[in-house]
């Protein structure tokens, strides 16, 4: 595939995701999360350390630190000593953080469902299949 086609596919995907997120950002903010905090909070279960989060989300480490401080101040995240390495602290999502994340995910899902409704059932299944194939 020529680079221009790959770049166009990437751009279209990015535009869809950005528009969906921008549309639901005010509702997500209403439950207590800024957009980037939402993504950080959503990755903590898979990435227990700030450096891992920065790498996964392609964000600068200082930015992740700011988002984590905000999430801690809101009571959505706490740091605890890592039982496997007592010199390190790992991140844990609090029950309040879990509840808030679930609310935000419902908001995002509802908005994305509106976009997906533009596709029929077979097109939605094909889109899911193709995206899953790219991740394998």
Written description of the protein model:
This protein has 136 residues and is mainly alpha-helical. It has one domain (3-135): Winged helix-like DNA-binding domain superfamily/Winged helix DNA-binding domain (Arc Repressor Mutant, subunit A, Orthogonal Bundle). The protein has 6 helices and 2 strands; from the N terminus they run H-H-H-H-E-E-H-H. The chain has helices spanning 3-30, 35-43, 50-57, 61-73, 95-116, 121-135, and strands at 77-82, 85-93. Strands 1-2 form a two-stranded antiparallel ribbon. A hairpin with a 2-residue loop joins strand 1 (77-82) and strand 2 (85-93). It is globular, with a radius of gyration of 17 Å. It starts with a helix and ends with a helix. The model has no long low-confidence stretch (mean pLDDT 93).
Which structural traits does this protein have?
mainly alpha, 136 residues, 11% strand, Arc Repressor Mutant, subunit A, two-stranded antiparallel sheet
